[in-house]
Design brief:
- With 989 residues, the protein is an alpha/beta fold.
- Helices cover 35% and strands 20% of the residues.
- The chain has 30 helices and 35 strands.
- Strand 22 (581-589) and strand 23 (596-599) form a beta hairpin.
- Helix 20 packs antiparallel against helix 21 and helix 25 (810-825) runs antiparallel to helix 26 (829-844).
- The longest helix is centred in the middle third of the chain and has 23 residues, at 636-658.
- Residues 231-235, 386-405, 556-566 and 973-989 have low confidence and may be disordered.
Length: 989
Amino acid sequence: MKKLLAITRNLAASHEEVAAVLAAAGVLTAAGWDWLAKFDPARAAQSMQLLGAKRIWVPPPAYSYDVVSTVASEIAEAWLHSFRDASEPGPARLLLKPSQRQWGDSERFALPPLVHAMLGGFQQLRGSWPSWTAIDQATVGSVAIKIGPGEGDRNHWKWPLRLSLEGIEPKSFDTTFRPAERGLSRTVKLGAPSEYAFVRSLDGLDAADTAFVTFISDESYDLIAPLLATGRRRAIRPVAWLQGADIDIKSLAKELIYETAHDAPPDLALNLAWLRAGGSAAPPIVFATQDYFEQMDAARLSQSVKDLSQQLRVLARTNNLPISILESTAYWFGVPAQNNVRPSELAEAIANAVEHDSISYQSEDHAAHATAQVTSLIADRVADSRRSADAKVTAEEIAPSPGTSEIETERFSDLSILTGSWWLGDLISDDARLAQDAPLGEASEYTLEVAIRANPIASKDNRKPIPPPRRTKESITIYARVIARADIKLADELLPITWPFDEDSTPALFRFSLGTAFNNGTLLEVRLLSGDLRLLDQIKYVFEKQQWSVSPVDPLATLARPASERARDALSLAISGARNGYTVQAELVRDGSTPLAVPLRQTIRSDDVARLLTDVRRHWTKLVIGVMSKRNQLTEPSYKIASDELAAFGREAWRLLFGDKRGGQTGTGETLGTLLADTPLPSNALVRVSFSDDAQDFTFPWSIVTPPKRKKEAASPQPWGLSYQIEIARAQGRTPPPKSGSLRMTAIVDDGFVSFVDHRKTLQDIVTANPVLALTQADLNDEIRAALVADNPSDIFYFFCHGMMASAPPALLAEMQAEIGAAVKALDKASQEPWQLLVNALGGNDGGARISSSRADFSERALRELEFFNGLRRPLVFLNMCHSASSLPASHIGLPAVFLDRDAIAVIGTEAPITAQFGDAFARALLGRLLNGEALGTAMLATRRTFHHQNNPLALIYTLYGRGDTRLVPKRPESPSPPTNNQPKEIAL
């Protein structure tokens, strides 16, 4: 490793590039990268991206050093590229794992300089003091050395944080310690349970064994060997070696608490605190177990806040009398400012604040102080009864469900290879199975059989039985995910397995082919997953010494990233072009766990999408121009009919997306669809859609996609637009922070709608209710042009006018003109007027997207001629073009693309014709939420639901392009619901 370090330092142009090359080389090695193959930066970036911001690092093999020296710049580029679409905030984090079971002597002596080099770019931040969430994600922000198995504590930390310090009395320390004065920490004696402990030598480690993280400030030259040995003996909690004597422990402890209060994982908090405390020598070296990342994430303040809600619920079961909380605590948890509140009410308020992402972690006085204060109140209230209350809750949690058996026969994962191609339902004979000593032939086809059996065909030596994730005696469905060598072509990567109670499972049959013979090494890896993506087993199929065997896989080697706090549950769909259609790569994350990434395999045909879009467009036209042309809600029967029709189209969209095969024909797409239908993502989760360059013309009715109903007794599933936050995403910079000062909005309003709605008055009402907003009107082409190209453009550009969102071929526009014209004829003369403008525009349109009003007109081409925004500000663009259309097959997203190309942070647009009355109502509801501090994606979902509860489906027509985590103003937890005057129910349409 020292040779690799020397090579990298000689070749790299900066500390950042040294860190990038070293980090990428080890991460790729951990991912099984073949250094003998030609280096492909794009494929390397994809391999690293699957491992996420929290990445495992393994020493690259010595033969790779020459490869690294010839492609160092490409490796650094691949490292940077791997973070392009990362959603998790903050810098990269590494856990160094030995190539063998233990660190060898040659590796051990190279560890300190290796850690220092990897943190070289991070150390350049000294003096700039950035927030941890604002540090570039490609910067290596923390490095830990693996010392033992994963047996550490993953509990949420208690606030105020407890410090224990060797040789220092707690009372004398706290009297002059600022975090203690502010209620963020308290000092306890060494040996008492604590979050952070500071000791002066190796001798103090045993005394600090009850601390979650221990810091040792021994000035010895080299503690690597004894700490590695100590780590193997303790193998529980992280130890950080503070080298040198230049750090003031009190200053470090203070900064450490403040960074932790900002919701930073403690591994990042440590290095940031070290910088802030003036550390000039080598950065701390951390020794940790293989579940280090899980320990650090569980320690985040946001996890403690979530845990606080549960603590209050426990308290409420035994004593729900009101408790007195400070006004500041009420403010930061978003509850009414009152002296007394019941624990159950406070628990619900905190849970709601967490769900709506309305708790601020940007100041150490906010959530941390409030959490510490409420924790202390709980401790005071239940000092005598806490033990019995906890015992009662534990008993309820572990009580077996009715109908379950206490004993189920142990079963094991089983793998075998069948010669030829086999399908589910085929009768498999013994002679179809490949002999245990037979290698794989060249240019041959095989089938991998995956099953769960009490008596497996493969040896079960050194393997543990699989715990069945069932609560009753019913059959369950689990999922097999296969990851194979690059030269193996799999027909599917994900298939279901049915596992009856106390019986062997059905098999999953993965057909594959390979172009060259295989006679040594690991062929593939299999992961067995529950519906909520819990890892049940992880094994590999290996051919060694002329024998096939199944071996457990160290899950550390394939650890992937949790999603960010904003998107701990997310489905990402990447659309790419294909012959006659499109393909989809899906990535599913549940509760921040390891992502499941699979290609869906089937091709979505362009003709099928075009037919679906035509049906959906006709449905919206009939509803908007006909039934709801003068109404803001439907009767219950009418709304059910409209919803059922949309659901039918939504299920068709589901089938196009995930496939519609059954039985032995079931593939990866159908399997993922079944998983999502049987175990849906939780409400408010994120669905993010992105496109490759050859799929920019793909249009799909994402908001109405509806899962099939899988169980007779279950309620009908809701469409995605009412269940999840949906982003039509593209690669772009990070979300800018909300503005703490005033906001400016430029509004383009067509007065041609004044006979239907006075929209200028609506905007003025919004400004009156939200003094933070300054409104400027732009009516003429010159005024609009000047506002766009201004050196300091507005924060919001809002269009309430006519328009065509997307480009489309003339033949399709003529078809739309006929459809809308026929619907308009049924209206009275006064109601026909605005629609007639759209009908005429469709007839005379050359197919290009455009914005038009009674006093201004801009085509997409004219907009692209302008140079605006230029990165000086990234505004939100709201295209509330009330008589417009966008769900057009084979169309480029014209106007949204124009503004996103100019680096707008997000664009809101419509997918179908909308009346002026509803456009007015939607704007009032959505802007009210945004100006109350809600994130854009959360506000869009909440607004759709508001209209849904009023029997109005039209909010599903609005689409978000860009970043859904955008906030215009800081969140306001004291008002978790929008002010009454922002609610659509008060709008007279």
